[in-house]
Design brief:
The chain is elongated. By secondary structure, the chain is an alpha+beta fold. The chain has one helix at about 35-50, and strands at about 15-20, 55-60, 75-85, 90-100, 110-120. Helix content is about 15%, strand content about 35%. The chain has one helix and five strands.
């Protein structure tokens, strides 16, 4: 992983894009960290599933720091990048960037957090399986 402040632009592919809405807030009116982690996990699963050609599951999430709160009305963009493919595991870097509700420039994004998700490929019975070669 790289330091949070080293990269001024999103790294990887845009995997999920969603609107932060009022029902996703905590007591202070900010979007909860759990909501963001849930969607980051979904994005990691989508990216890993493409590599694994099927079902995957999260086995670990490496360190995560939140740089700023996410406000209602923010457009949340989740980017993923395959970092490493093992025998049965896939490491996915996940970054969250937002466009603030009042931002007029659609290209202006602000980084909120990043983490590395470790996923494993699963067979139809839920047992760990090998990731196909040349995935």
């Amino acid at each position: 992983m790289i330091d949070l402040d080293d990269v001024p632009a999103p790294q990887g592919d845009l995997t999920l894009k969603l609107l932060a809405s009022r029902q996703d807030t905590n007591l202070y009116g900010d979007i909860s960290g759990g909501w963001l982690i849930n969607h980051m996990d979904q994005a990691a699963e989508l990216a890993a599933g493409r590599q694994a050609h099927g079902r995957t599951a999260t086995v670990a999430i490496e360190a995560m720091d939140f740089l700023s709160p996410v406000r209602v009305g923010s457009m949340v963009n989740i980017f993923t990048r395959v970092q490493e493919i093992g025998h049965s595991s896939i490491k996915i870097d996940v970054e969250v960037w937002i466009r603030l509700p009042q931002e007029r420039n659609p290209q202006e994004l602000h980084k909120v957090t990043e983490a590395r998700f470790v996923m494993v490929a699963l067979d139809e019975n839920g047992r760990i399986r090998a990731v196909p070669n040349g995935a």
